[in-house]
Design a protein that fits this description.
The complex is a heterodimer of chains A (301) and B (240). Chain A has 301 residues and is mainly alpha-helical. Helix content of chain A is 69%, strand content 2%. Chain A has one domain. In chain A, helix 6 crosses helix 8. Chain A is globular and about 65 Å long. Chain B has 240 residues and is α/β, with parallel strands linked by helices. Chain B has a domain of 60 residues. In chain B, the strands form two sheets. A six-stranded mixed β-sheet of chain B has the order 6-7-8-4-9-10, with helices on both faces. In chain B, strands 1, 2, 3 and 5 form a four-stranded antiparallel β-sheet that branches. In chain B, helix 3 packs across helix 4 and helix 3 runs parallel beside helix 5. Chain B is globular. Classes of the chains: A mainly alpha (301), B alpha/beta (240). Chains A and B meet through strand 1, helix 1, helix 2, helix 5 and helix 12 of A and strand 1, strand 2, helix 1, strand 5 and strand 6 of B.
Chain lengths: 301, 240
């Protein structure tokens, strides 16, 4: 039987904050004096090993999450592709016939808002349940819990990637060709993922603390689509409203996607910098709290 | 390679008895607290099996979770050195909607293996868990014994130096219990530690020569298994 084993023996010491017993470490040294402890690797190799380990963990958590939430087989791909199409269809009817404000290439304009919004929305919804659905593992073993919100982001990124087919279809339908502005797309995608990841850290904690209020929290995020230039571009709103709508971090994202796909131009600096700044602020607040709270996850799930 | 010094684990409740985190408790001052275990101290240099015995609610599972770093101590200190494998919950840490293979892959990586190593280990996990075709079926269709077998087979793959077993091993059939006992013995002979808790004392006696009797979250007695078990049973019968 071929056996594989982790390369380094785990060594952990953790304490409560009311009593600090420094003697424990020295006693432990005495206890393990004769134990076969491997030599410490160099700092660079240790960092590489840690990075590889993080990537492995993240991938394993994401793959399991994808199967857990979306099942297996071609059905899930169909769902990822059809869902944004259905949303664009509904909103297109709303914008064209009910609001009577279609504007240029309304389907493409809507898709440019729906795709980044769906990533944030789906990630937040995923993260709110992310701790709960991993209860069996949380109660059984130690692992890097700080990666859970990131795995929510990566899980929903799969659907996000599939939904780009919608953009392609809309560009073909409206005869809008790709331009050199597409070179900005990687940066826009990065900011979008960064914002979604920030939302995931906040949502995973809020989902744990305010279990009963999850539907309200999701409604709040959904509201951000309508309290931003989701249905119509920012330029089509009143000048007074424009200033207010810019405070919504999703407004910049929607407009950035419209800039590169619809108008064929580089996004304005605020369209990327403002969502990036908001996401950074969210991370600065919630990541330290998350790190502290993760120690108690097993008690509250 | 285990050192526990005056360790305690506290649970926080709001006024509706919902369990909260410590930070949550600070925000809601009208709650209550309860120590799951407190002032627990013991050490083990390795090469032994330790049983936690005591009635339900005495703190056995909390102690095992503390050693597995599923819980952090709210006071005191816990130091654990060595690769730890744990089987602490009745579902053995398995996600019910995933297949046995998918769970094995996930738990292997979470347990310390690389993805490649975890994938390479799948066939030997399948063989050792004796699940046959059920290995590729959803875990929701498994019996508790099958879950425990899969959980143990995965835990074994990381070649643990410290094995933590809660009552979950009691769900195993007799054939597999012999296998678990044999593996636990090998860990002890190599200088590792097996910590087991439960109410199946004959099984615990086969795995452990030392016992800690836990009562209301504190260690009432620590000593040779036979001696501690006899006193515990005498006290239990006297109480009844």
């Amino acid at each position: 039987m071929n056996r594989v084993r982790p390369p380094v023996a785990a060594s952990t010491s953790f304490s409560g904050d009311e009593v600090n017993l420094r003697c424990v470490e020295s006693k432990l040294e005495a206890l393990t004096k004769s134990a076969d402890v491997p030599r410490r690797p160099s700092r660079g190799r240790a960092a590489m090993r840690s990075l590889r380990r993080t990537a492995d963990l993240l991938r394993a958590l994401t793959e399991a999450d994808l199967r857990f939430r979306y099942g297996r087989g071609p059905g899930r791909l169909l769902r990822w592709i059809l869902e944004p199409f259905a949303l664009v269809g509904v909103y297109l009817l709303l914008v064209t016939f009910v609001l009577d404000r279609p504007g240029p290439a309304p389907g493409l304009s809507l898709a440019a808002a729906i795709i980044p919004f769906q990533l944030v929305m789906a990630t937040v919804a995923n993260a709110m349940e992310a701790i709960d659905i991993r209860k069996p593992i949380l109660l059984n073993m130690r692992f890097e819990r700080r990666l859970i919100p990131l795995s929510s982001t990566f899980t929903e990124s799969t659907a996000f990637a599939a939904s780009f087919l919608l953009i392609v279809v809309m560009m073909v339908a409206y005869g809008v060709g790709p331009t050199t502005a597409l070179v900005w797309l990687p940066l826009i995608l990065f900011v979008n993922l960064y914002l979604a990841a920030a939302g995931a850290y906040a949502a995973s904690l809020l989902g744990l603390w305010l279990h009963e209020l999850k539907p309200f929290l999701l409604s709040f995020v959904r509201m951000l689509f309508f309290l931003g230039p989701g249905l119509v571009p920012l330029a089509a709103t009143g000048s007074g409203a424009q200033e207010i709508l810019r405070f919504n971090p999703l407004s910049g994202m929607f407009e950035a996607y419209r800039s590169v796909f619809l108008h064929g131009e580089a996004p304005a600096a605020w369209e990327l910098l403002y969502p990036f700044a908001i996401a950074t602020a969210i991370l600065l607040v919630f990541v330290p709290i998350y790190r502290s709270e993760q120690r108690e996850f097993a008690k509250v799930v | 390679m285990i050192s526990v010094r005056q360790a305690g684990v506290r649970f926080y409740f709001d006024r509706h008895l919902k369990v909260m985190t410590r930070n949550g408790a600070r925000l809601r001052p009208h709650g209550s607290t309860k120590w799951g275990v407190r002032n627990i101290s013991f050490e083990s240099a390795g090469g032994e099996g330790i049983a936690f015995i005591g009635r339900s609610g005495s703190g056995k599972t909390t102690m095992l979770r503390l050693l597995a770093q599923v819980y952090w101590p709210d006071e005191g200190e816990v130091a654990v050195r060595g690769r730890v494998a744990s089987l602490l919950s009745i579902d053995a840490g398995l996600l019910s909607l995933l297949s046995g293979r998918e769970n094995a892959m996930l738990l292997g990586v979470l347990g310390g293996l690389s993805r490649r190593a975890s994938r390479r280990a799948l066939e030997s996990i399948k063989e050792r868990s004796r699940l046959d075709d059920a290995f590729d079926q959803p875990v929701s269709t498994y019996s508790q014994g099958m879950r425990a077998r899969l959980g143990f087979a995965v835990a074994e793959e990381v070649e643990p130096q410290i094995l933590l077993l809660d009552e979950v091993h009691e769900a195993l059939d007799h054939e597999y219990r012999d296998f678990v006992q044999e593996r636990a013995q090998q860990i002890i002979e190599k200088g590792g530690i097996v910590v087991a808790a439960g109410h199946d004392h004959p099984m615990l006696a086969r795995l452990c020569k030392r016992a800690l009797w836990l009562q209301d979250g504190v260690v009432r007695e620590d000593g040779p298994f036979d001696q501690v078990q006899r006193r515990y049973l005498d006290a239990a019968h006297a109480h009844a």
